[in-house]
Amino acid sequence: MAVCGLWYFFAGNHKPFFMYIGLLHLHNLLRWVILLLLLWNIVKLFSGSRSLGVSKALLIATHTTVLIGLYQYFFGKMGFALFQEHGSEVMKLSALRFWAVEHITTMLLAAVLITVGHVSFKKGGTTKKTAVLYTIAFILILAAIPWPFRDAAIAKPLFPGMH
Predict the structure, then answer these.
(1) Other residues' Cβ atoms within 10 Å of the Cβ of residue 89
(2) pLDDT of 14-34, one tens digit each?
């Protein structure tokens, strides 16, 4: 079935194909995994505990989510396609700007902070430095999530299928 989907894509049809919705749901689920792992890591690191395994789980979840998000950005209708469809108007409309620029930029920055924090921690860096980097990443992620209480054009349900 995946081969059929890939053929559909590479045959020249650049509309999102059947995997898009499943990946969107996985992207949403991994958001919660990342938030919980970030909180867990922050608490452990500020308490001075050195648990590389939890930090590695956070890194894996983050990188998986980034890869799914990049796929959605470049092949979905709520990312790069907004620039193609609306041109410079994207920057004038807050909802379009959120999806085309703000969400991806903020989330990539948070992923970089998580990666730098993990690598620093792995190489024997201080727990405080990693905790600070993770805390900044946590705040950035909270700011860039399309929470249900945001503007209607930005808001998404807490879990897929909820309205």
Answers:
(1) 12
(2) 454 567 788 888 999 999 999
